């Protein structure tokens, strides 16, 4: 005599296997998607140990923030984060932090970050801009102001 539940084990086992297979497939596809999108994710912005500074995002839309501050007697440290890719037709994704008054020209490659210590600056207002892309220094979104207060 056979048990009334004898025939039910097969379909139940098949459902459990199907669920495990689906979970494994989702995990594998999720890992593949994560790895495939890695080149398109922005780099983590970090300031070297022992230094404090301001983070400045540079993009085809300009500088964020476009108004930077510093104090006399203190190093002005800026970390530029460029999330643009090299596939931009205007400038190849490169950006620039140019300050004529300081004879300073910093180039930031695509998908990278760069920390720059400007040192101790005199009190004053310093105009900066990017002249590589997006209309260059004449474009108001590609300009900013560094204010150093005493």
Widest sheet: strand order? Answer: 2-1-4-7
Distance between the termini: 97 Å
Number of strands: 9
Number of separate helices: 1
Structural class: alpha/beta
The residue-averaged pLDDT reads: 83
Order of helices and strands: HEEEEEEEEE
Q: Helicity level, as a percent range?
A: 10-25%
Q: Compute the CA-based radius of gyration.
A: 27 Å
What can you tell me about this protein's structure?
The protein has about 150 residues and is of the alpha/beta class. Helix content is about 20%, strand content about 35%. It contains one helix and nine strands. It has a four-stranded mixed beta sheet, with no helix packed on it. It starts with 8 loop residues before the first helix and ends with a strand. The model has no long low-confidence stretch (mean pLDDT about 85).
Structure at a glance:
This protein is of the alpha/beta class. The protein is built from 1 helix and 9 strands. The strands form 3 sheets. Strands 2-1-4-7 form a 4-stranded mixed beta sheet, with no helix packed on it.
